[in-house]
Amino acid sequence: MEKTPVIVCKPYHSPCGELLLGSFEDKLCLCNWQTKKRRDQVDQRLQRLLSARYKEGTSDVIEQTTAQLDEYFARRRREFDIPLLFAGTPFQKAVWQALLTVPYGTTLSYAALAKQLGTPKAVRAVANANGANAISIFVPCHRIIGSDRSLTGYGGGLPAKTRLLELESGVQYLETV
Length: 177
Known about the structure:
Elements: E1 6-14, E2 17-24, E3 27-33, H1 36-50, E4 53-56, H2 60-73, H3 90-99, E5 108-109, H4 110-116, H5 123-131, E6 144-145, H6 158-169
Parallel strand pairs: 1-4, 5-6
Antiparallel strand pairs: 1-2, 2-3
Helix pairs in contact: 4-5
């Protein structure tokens, strides 16, 4: 009997909202906000691309992830060293890889990210790939903002995005939500 691979999942309560952590084959593949907005799309894509199903539990990777998130929210960690597994198209993976280069405490516009990727006219595609990110915080999509410095959509909601930016910058973000 063939056994279906599993993505081991565990909830995490952050100061910004509920997250679902998921690991697959000793890598973090999921750190997703538990808001209905994009959750179903991310869950379906992840399970389809990994040919796996969700199973509640924990793993070494999830326990390390929890510890590093606790440190991050306590302002004792600025970088993560959890092994990541990206499940998406080659373009999405390129965008997510580029997000890893955006430093803690800084922001970048969607247009600047598109230019950095060598696709300056693909701002909308970059924004869509950013929105499809299944590994929030670790792949810092919250650091991407509008060209006019406005906050734009975020899977965890704009209040969560604002709190993350404030946490990292140490100052209150200028835009009110």
